Amino acid sequence: MDPASTLPILLMAAWLVPLASFVLIVLFGKYMGPHGKGAGYLSVLAIITSAIFSLIAMFGVWLPNHELPTSGHGDHNGAVSSATEESHAPTEHAAEHHETEHEYPNYSGDWYSLGEFGDLKITIGYYIDALTVAMFCMVSVIASCVHIYALGYMHDELHEPYIDHEVTLSSGEHLHRKGRFYRFFQYLSLFCFSMFGIVIAGNVAMVFVFWELVGICSYFLIGFYIERHSASAAANKAFLVTRVGDFGMLIGMMALWASVGTFAFGDMKNEQGEVTEKGLFSLLRPEEHHHHLAPPPGMIAEEERMFAGDPDGESVPAAVEEEHNTAGQWLLLIAGVGIFCGCVGKSAQFPLHVWLPDAMEGPTPVSALVHSATMVAAGVYLVGRFYPCFSPEALLVIAYVGCITLFIAATIAITATDIKRVLAYSTVSQLGYMMLSLGLGGWVAGMFHLITHAFFKGLLFLCSGSVIHAVHTNDMTYMGGLRKKMPITAYTMLIGCLAIIGAGFPLSVYGLSGYYSKDAIIEQAWSFASVNPQHAILKWAPVGGAFITAFYMFRLWYLTFAGKPRDEHRYDHAHESPRVMTGPLLVLAFFAIGIGWPIFHVNDLLEQGRPVGTLASTQGELLTNLTIPSEHDSHVPIIKQPAGIAAFSTALAGLLLASIIYLWRLLNPDELKESFKPLWGFLSNKWFFDELYDYVFVKPTLVVSHCAAWFDRNIIDSILHTAAAICRACSAVVDALFDQTVVDGTVNTFASGTWSLGLWLRRIQTGNLRQYVMFIVIGTVALFVTISIVQAYYIPTN
Amino acid sequence: MESIYWPSFFFFLFSGLACAFAVAVLLSSNIVRMAFYLVLSLGATAGLMFLAGAEFVGAMQLLIYVGGTLVLLIFGVMLTSQERFVVMKTWAGDWVKAFLAGGALLFILAYAAFSIPEWRGIERAEADAVEAQPSVTPIAMGLLGARTDDPDGSGYLLPFEIVSVHLLVVLIGAAYLARAKRSRSSLEKL
Amino acid sequence: MLSIPFANLLTEPVGVAHYVTVGAILFICGALCMATKRNALGVLMGIELVLNGANLNFVAFGSRYLRDDANSLGLDGQLMALFVIVLAAAEAAVALAIALNFYNNHDSIDVDRADQLRG
């Protein structure tokens, strides 16, 4: 099978099936079985179809046609050969010559052109490489699990009426409303369609469209319990906060378009395989520069125009070959950081991370699918997809944002007691890890962590949903000891916890999925720090994060499943979830254990998807002492061994600390809380971010809007009222002068004339029959007389 | 002096009777007498029709008018007079106005009739030469749509049917209108 | 001879004009009857007289004895007269029904009291 023709068709099918399901449910969802139950099955069927298509695309088309690279095989033992070779001469010069970098296959094209505006073509296109196919499989498999799980979890919505115990009406009763089962699945289908759209998108504009579509799906799903005030507020918050990031993304898109003139990622080829239009990647990393990032002339001219205030931008500088040429780099940085802003919003990175924990108001399957595994990962995915366009400085920004995020979120997670919020902050923190890795040059590590994280975080959320389903509360202080009641949930969640902390045998190839990806990230961080000593904080933050992660994840598990039940009533009513919910847990647990294993070659597959030209270590142009190391450098034993040991020992330390406090109860958590009260308060208030934003943005906005309202009410309104009064006065004058005299006079004259004529004619109408007969007789006589006279005198007789 | 032309004699006899009884109807104030005079007037008119050669129409005149319509009128008289022969006087002014207008109209009509020479009649010899023809069969054929007397003329089948239906409708309508209803006084008692 | 209309009434055949005159007299009597009678049945009789006068005219115009055949209505006159008789009968029935109704409502058949339609 020819991958160039079959892959787009297969993936398009996988992409459009959820859309069909969405449309059908929108139109007929209400009538699908009792309370729309059939809508759920339809949606599940659609996503499973998508998963089958994706898996065919992966195992039937991609893998048979593309040999996996051997160089990146097994980042724990196999990659040493090529990496050691490079480590002898890790300078830029050497890397250019020794880099055995292949241009891995990608397929791009357009399905449909929406319009052309000058040079700009807006199309529905595709860009398919190994990353696209891997993402398709990951998203569709997780989404299938979540859909099936949701059939069980949302079962309450099938009841009529549904009683929402968290909404109390003014009458003191709980809200009774119709079940919205079918609507939930309608949104899930739309979400899957949008998510696939982002992944397959062939240009930035299309990414943006589907970016916003997943945003609106997220909005609908967070606000699914719209009657709960917290849910609707959280939906609004999520929507508005991500809009801030999208604004930055728009700026980045404009900067790109103005300077490069295209939105497409890849090159457009005609039937003969010749390149007709160059895409972003090959324009920014031209072949003649050995795929090194070089701002194209258009970008340099645009920057000249911007900074010199020269509106024509005619003076194209000739000195492109100069060493440490900064021309165009600033605009490249703006474009990169702008696009990254969108990713910050969507992936809940600092400083826009505030929306994700609130988004946990949505139903738990939504949290699992949208707010941990896929949608928030879309930001990371976009950074990965856009990777060739980021200059080293932009990557440094990404790294620092990720670093700050992972630390802040991890610390907040320590104090949270809401089981889903702990997981939400954990998600934010893990996304920070991915961003950090990408920012430090670890493209494969970041993408690898994205995929492993999707599986184990989806698993963790579904487990928490199962717990919530059993005890009807989110608060961990009411749980405890549940492992006896719901063993499947407890042990699959334990697998998830072990995976997220990266449990494995250090310096070996045996561990859970998180072990591979997390170690890869930490190795990359250490590798980076060894080249750039001034950024040593980036080396220690992920290690510290690993400690905190282990601590709060096992705190969560111990509080929920271990020890004695703290709420007997809830404990007694707890029960294991139905099979439709535990089945997906087992499937995801399998993936959480094994997806990282070298035999599955996920790492090699991603190595195949690495954007061309990004493996070589690069030197910053604006920050001359900044070096982004080659990812293969992180596999040398001198970095790999200490990093692996550090990661393992910190995670083990976190696990032990959590066990000491929450399992063996050697230290009383309440006493600890008392003694660290200021710190605890600071953390449990989430570093006061919400309050800060409230004071910095919300309050001033309110003040400004109050001023504007005052202006409207007093100035504009009075102007309007004055104008209205003048108008009324004028019309009163016209009324008195013209209407009341001329118009009314005419009408009244006609009316009174008609009236008096009628009064006069009325006298003839006596109603007397005999008189009428007389009129007839007289009329006949008069007629005769008249005709006679006319005939006699006026008609000539011949 | 020529001998008396008997048809003319009978014409004057019947026309005199018809006009006299018509005037009697006009002048009488007793409703029963009026009806009686009307019968006589209509009968005399039927005689005039016989004289004009329209035997069938004259017979119908006698049958329908004298035998049917007048009976209907008599019934009306009997049904509506609550007191014995109520007299409703007409004011003298009305009489004067009526006779003025009526006289004028009569004068005009008679003057117009006699001012046309062709209408004053035919010669006696001519009249004698006219062959009497039975008119019943042609009328019947005409009503059924086939004209025997005038091949170019049109038949009267459609008007005949319309009139039949009309008559039916009118009879039903009359029955409906005249059906017994509660009088107002009895309604008030309720 | 024709210059003196009434010279030889009895010796010569009568013409259409005579019939028309008789019809006119009947018509005038009927019309005056309608105009003067206060009794609704009297009015009804006036209508019969009027129709009768008109009928007579139809018969006269159609008769072959009274004028030249060329302009005669022929059989059409008699057929018209027949239709008029039929319609007169129908009219009489309806009029009588109206009179009865009127009598039921007013306890009288004085048409002068039926002036609800006056302007």
List the helices and strands and how they pair.
The complex is a heterotrimer of chains A (798), B (190) and C (119).
Chain A: H1 3-28, H2 37-65, H3 80-88, H4 92-98, E1 107-117, E2 120-128, H5 130-153, E3 162-168, E4 174-177, H6 181-200, H7 204-222, H8 229-260, E5 268-269, E6 275-277, H9 280-284, H10 297-308, H11 329-346, H12 355-358, H13 364-373, H14 375-385, H15 392-415, H16 419-439, H17 443-471, H18 487-500, H19 513-531, H20 537-561, H21 568-573, H22 579-594, H23 602-609, E7 618-619, E8 627-628, H24 637-663, H25 669-675, H26 677-684, H27 689-762, H28 769-794
Antiparallel strand pairs in A: 1-2, 3-4, 5-6, 7-8
Helix pairs in contact in A: 1-2, 1-6, 2-5, 2-6, 5-6, 5-13, 5-17, 5-22, 5-23, 6-7, 7-8, 8-10, 8-11, 10-11, 11-14, 11-15, 13-16, 13-17, 14-16, 14-17, 15-16, 15-20, 16-17, 16-19, 16-20, 17-18, 17-19, 17-22, 17-23, 18-20, 18-22, 19-20, 19-24, 20-24
Chain B: H1 6-27, H2 31-51, H3 55-80, H4 92-114, H5 124-129, H6 136-143, H7 157-177, H8 184-189
Helix pairs in contact in B: 1-2, 2-3
Chain C: H1 16-36, H2 40-62, H3 75-106
Stretches of chain A where pLDDT is under 50 for at least 5 consecutive residues are 71-100, 313-324
Structural class of chain B: mainly alpha
Low-confidence stretches of chain B: none
Number of strands of chain B: 0
From the N-terminal CA to the C-terminal CA of chain A, the straight-line distance is: 111 Å
Residue-averaged pLDDT of chain B? 82
CATH class value of the largest domain in chain B: Mainly Alpha
Shape of chain B: globular
Radius of gyration of chain A: 36 Å
Q: Largest sheet of chain B at a glance?
A: none
What is the overall number of helices of chain B?
Answer: 8
By DSSP (H or I, 4+ residues per run), the number of helices of chain A equals 28
Rounded mean pLDDT of chain A is 83
Number of domains as seen in the coordinates of chain B: 3
Give structural notes:
The complex is a heterotrimer of chains A (798), B (190) and C (119). With 798 residues, chain A is mainly α. Chain A has helices at 3-28, 37-65, 80-88, 92-98, 130-153, 181-200, 204-222, 229-260, 280-284, 297-308, 329-346, 355-358, 364-373, 375-385, 392-415, 419-439, 443-471, 487-500, 513-531, 537-561, 568-573, 579-594, 602-609, 637-663, 669-675, 677-684, 689-762, 769-794; strands at residues 107-117, 120-128, 162-168, 174-177, 268-269, 275-277, 618-619, 627-628. Among the domains of chain A are: 391-596 and 610-684, no CATH class; 689-765; 767-798. Chain A is 66% helix and 5% strand. By secondary structure, chain B is mainly alpha-helical. The model of chain B has no long low-confidence stretch (mean pLDDT 82). Chain C is mainly alpha-helical and 119 residues long. Chain C is built from three helices and no strands. Chain C has helices at 16-36, 40-62, 75-106. The longest helix of chain C has 32 residues, at 75-106. The chains are: A mainly alpha (798), B mainly alpha (190), C mainly alpha (119). Chains in contact: A-B, A-C, B-C.
